[in-house]
Amino acid sequence: MIFDFFEKLLPYLQKNNLQIDYLIDRKADISGPYNVAGFEVVSLDTALAGGTDKVLISSYAFKDEIARNIYEQSIMHNSHA
User: Fold this and answer.
1) What pLDDT digit, counting tens, does each position of 55-72 carry?
2) How far apart are CA 58 and CA 63, in angstroms?
């Protein structure tokens, strides 16, 4: 499962008092929001519209593509604000 890593990472985030506002996944663009480990998973667009400004990328294999997508979409959101 794609969120196995998140479920393993979650205790470390909580131990260090890192607040999770959104879990973001591209699948939420297609199929809508869903839940993982008690957190709602939303699209990047939804998270940006909600005002998120910090993102932790937990995929090493696709980190560059994800970072570029976050950057491009955040510019579009800022230009529409």
Assistant:
1) 888 888 889 999 999 999
2) 8
pTM of the model: 0.80
Contact call for residues 56 and 10 (beta carbons, < 8 A): no
> H helices within 1-81, ranges in order?
4-15, 27-31, 44-49, 63-80
Residue 15 CA to residue 17 CA, distance in Å, equals 6
d(CA 69, CA 81): 18
Q: Which amino acid is at 28?
A: A
3-state secondary structure of 17: coil
Coil, strand or helix at 27: helix
DSSP state of 60: S
